[in-house]
Amino acid sequence: MSITTLISVGFSALNQNLSVSGDIEYEKDANTLYGVLRKEASLGTYALKYNDTHHDSFTQEPTKDIYYWYAPNTSDGNTLASSIIDKWNVIFGGFCWQMIRTTDTGGVKLIYNGVPTSGKCNNTGTAQQIGTSRFNTSSGSPANVGYMYNTEYRYNTKTLDSNSLLTSTSMTASNNYYYGTGVTYSGGTYTLTGVIRNTWTATYASSSGLYTCASTTASSCSTVYYIVSGTRQDMYGFTMTGGHLLSYYNTNIIVGSSYTVNGGTYTLGNTTTLTKASLFQNSSSYKNYYTCGNNSTSCSNLHYIVSIEKFFYEYISLPNNNYIYAKDFTYNNGTYTLGNDRIEVYQMSSTDLTNLKTHHYTCFNRTGQCNTLSYVYTATSPVSEYIYYIDLENGKSVEDAKNEMFYNNNVNTTNSTIKTYVDNWYSNNMTSYTNKLEDTIFCNSRYQSLESTNGWNPNGGNLNEHLLFGGSPSLQCINDTDKFSVSNNKAKLIYPVGLLTREDSVLLTNSNLTKTGQQYWLGTPLYYRTKYSYEFTVSTTGGSGMSIVSGGSYGVRPVISLKPMTEYSSGTGTRDNPYVVQ
Question: At residue 126, what are phi and psi to the nearest 5 degrees?
Answer without folding.
Answer: -65, -20
